[in-house]
Design brief:
The complex is a heterodimer of chains A (about 220) and B (about 375). Chain A has about 220 residues and is α/β, with parallel strands linked by helices. Chain A has 7 helices and 10 strands. In chain A, helix 3 packs parallel to helix 5. The chains are: A alpha/beta (about 220), B alpha+beta (about 375).
Amino acid sequence: MTEIIRIERLHKIFRIGKVEVPALRGVNLRVEDGEFVSLVGPSGCGKSTLLHVIGGLTAPTSGRVIVDGMDLGQMSDGLRTQLRKKKIGFVFQRFNLLPTLTAWGNIALACHIAGNRNGNSRAEMQAVIKMLGLEARMGHRPYELSGGEQQRVAIARAVVNRPKIILADEPTGNLDTENSELVLNMLCELNHKFGQTILLITHNPEVSTFTDRIVNMRDGHILES
Amino acid sequence: MVNRLIVANLVARPMRTMLSVTAVAVEMVLIILVVGLTHGILQETARRTAGVGAQIMVLPQTTSFVMGMSGTPLPTQLADRIAEVSGVQAVAPVATQVSSNGGVTMIYGIDPKRFDAVSGGFRFLQGRGLQAPDEVLVDDIHARAHKLRAGQTVELLNHTFRLAGIVEHGKGARIFMKIDALQDLLGAPGKASVFFVKVVNPQQTAQVLEELRRLLPNYQLRDMAEYLSLMTASNVPGLNNFITVMIALAVSIGLLVIFITMYSTIVERTREIGILKSMGASNRYIVSVVLRETALLTAVGIGAGIGLSFLLRRLTGVVFPTLPILITPGWMLRAGLIALAASFIGSVYPAFRASKLDAIEAIAYE
């Protein structure tokens, strides 16, 4: 297996007024292509910040973050956006679907942003929708869907363009046990079927049992892997 | 797909959408009606002046081309000298005065016989011609606007007149009285404001004009076609400035409302913008979404504004028949482009601000 994410001595410091708040304090991490990894740790330990840096939503303060061969620290905001568009799919705890669009619209918009506007992307969409069991819910808006359905739509949106990496930030945090299991099983299936690398954040040890590897974090450090 | 997102956003916020569309429509209506009214009045005045039937006008040397604002300095005896010039068929001396009683209206003081010789005579819809100095004629549009009937009395220039008849519109003024009656009221006996000259052969207008210039070197002589070509907003002192101020006012309304609505929508949709960014939407993509949303709002507003302008023109025609509004495709297009430019300017900053939002903060926005 090849390495798809490599992080070396990553520091991320937020400045709030004149105060510097270190969120990541020298993180080192390697993730292989196709791995399903969970990042486990208490609230405020820097899990989400790490995910945001890997996803190019924010730049590292220092250190190296190599994603699929590209050093994010050397990339402009525009290039990181390109990387996100082509190689990364996000799944959030709060689903973050666009409320004015239907489930179909949310997924189709992801295709549009990624530049996949041809017939193939439509077939791809149908396949993903079928796999996630959403065929009957496509014409509904987010507020008409259950939490589990919303999260499945969010997963469909994240994977429809076949990004190499899925970054899932507490994807089961707002779901009951039954829907949590459903969503985690689907992520496992996507990981096996499409070979996408999944990095999942959770503070729930039960959730991490679904993944290939568990990485523990505390106070901005990786403790063990 | 992005169009679907834009339409969905507009449909999801109907009050905001309606407000923005209304602002653009009001902007359009203001521009179209202000320009339409000024151009309409000028065109209508030109048409009525042409309707007198003369090919040449003789005016005082220093007069403005706007009749009724130049007093009555021409001696009426000149009419006989002009009539003797070869090629002249008829001459009608006319004293002009603007009445502000119930709206600004031009009054012609005429010698009925001489005026008929130039104009071919009035077509009477009610009553008869002028006989006494205390009589007036009005055209049908003025009569309709003021609900007048032949035989009743009317107040004009602080005097009471009897309405002798109602004539078909299109022969110079909307109100006519005998020239000597108007001269008396103006304190200018034997004086006229303009001579309308009808030539025997309109093809020879230039020759007759040349002859008249030799005869009357101290007067202003105008070919009617040339005179009518001067009836534009740019030739009326202050009118273009007025139009510019009104357009600026309309543009300010549109620009401000679009700015406020687009700015507030960006704040309201901060989280959605964060979501788009997390999906890989570039700054340019987000700017384009905001600008396209503005363009759609403006396009609907432009359509509504044009429709509303025609509706208001129709209503104005019923309530104020003497106020012609000229709506031309050229000005509709110009007003549309102005509205589009104003909306674009109003939405550039909100669009730019949206594109510069921090993705993480935007996603966390409540």
